[in-house]
Amino acid sequence: MTQIKKDLLEVVENMMIPEVEAYLEDLHTIIEKKEQTEENMEEVRDMESFLVELQNIIYAVNEGKIDDEQAKEIYEKIQGLIKESHSHE
Length: 89
Description:
By secondary structure, the chain is an all-alpha fold. It is 84% helix and 0% strand. The chain has one domain (3-87). The chain has 3 helices and no strands. Helix 1 (3-32) runs antiparallel to helix 2 (38-62). The N and C termini lie far apart (34 Å). This is DNA repair protein Rad50. Keywords: Coiled coil.
């Protein structure tokens, strides 16, 4: 496996998925307390969809379904998302 694919897997498995899962847990806690808004419900749908996309990336890399150029493009997009989310903190 090439380095870019290893880097992509690492950022997806060790950073993105845990962050999305933690955020989903927070949203589900809000829902359990019956304090949710329509915006929260939309966020849950979006995050669950995003989680599936991340899992599909892992599958595609492991099954050789994406090439290095595609892996690089996805990796760069994820890095952009990370930078954007950290600038909002």
